[in-house]
Amino acid sequence: MRTSRLILLFVLISLAAHSLFAAPPAVTLTISAAISLKQSVEAIEKEYQRIHPEITFRNNFGASGTLAVEIENGAPVDIFLSAALRPMDELEAKHLLAAGTRRNLLRNQLVLIAPAGSSLAGFPGLTNSQIRFIAIGEPNSVPAGEYALATLQALNLADQLKPKFVYARDVRQVLAYVETGNADAGFVYATDAKSSLRAKVIARVPPGSHPDILYPGAVLVGTHAMQEAKSFNDFLVSRAASDTFDSFGFTALRIQ
Fold it and tell me: How many other CB atoms sit within 10 Å of the CB of residue 149?
């Protein structure tokens, strides 16, 4: 009888120890993020997984407006990272953001680009007959396209150049159009231009030509893993994440 009790006690102690030291359950977080964040977010996720190997990520990159509509329509998303305030504002107005999780994370800058061999010298050159196609993101869904249109309106060039516009589904498609020569010029973020060897920056957009380019992030109320989503959302404003964002050309706004 005494031996049986000792065996039972040993089993109970072993089970208790296992529960204390067992690895936390695996969790997959779904991130919907502006396509301009692709490389930086993937790098930050790798950093985070070194600390939290139990977390995996499922990423959905695209135009911020399109991603916001998907979320409104019930897409299962844990965290949303937008390239503009308006898509996040619309989700907040519909009470789809977890309270206290929204933050402005980054700044970016809009630039005019052309193929590497182009002789384009500045914004006035866009009116030249040699510039046949100008790529911009679809303004209704792509923040970079909205900023581009506002810039050309501020420069009193929008009406004259509108027949040359080639609309793209996101800012990376704008970059691809210019890199391949399918567009003679285009408007992208400075971070996108930085990564390209086949396109060059012609000019930086003058300050005040469009609203500030701010990237907000937030946890969604529909997340299936609120604690884990909030933890990663907090990591996005850590010094490690901020340094990574900066290395890709962004300007990080918050450091914990």
Answer: 19
Q: Is 100 exposed, middle or buried (0-12, 13-18, 19+ CB in 10 A)?
A: exposed
* Torsion sign across C-alpha atoms 119, 123, 128, 129: positive
Same domain, 44 and 130: no
- Within 10 angstroms of residue 1's Cβ, the number of other Cβ atoms is 5
Residues 180 and 219 in one domain: no
Rounded CA-CA distance 5/135 in Å is 78
For residue 60, pLDDT over 80 is answered with yes
Nearest partner of 209 among 87, 136, 110, judged by Cα? 110
- CA 167 and chain centroid, separation: 20
The string of pLDDT tens digits covering residues 80-104 is: 999 999 999 999 999 999 999 999 9
Overall number of domains in the chain: 2
pTM, two decimal places = 0.88
Specify the DSSP class assigned to residue 25.
P
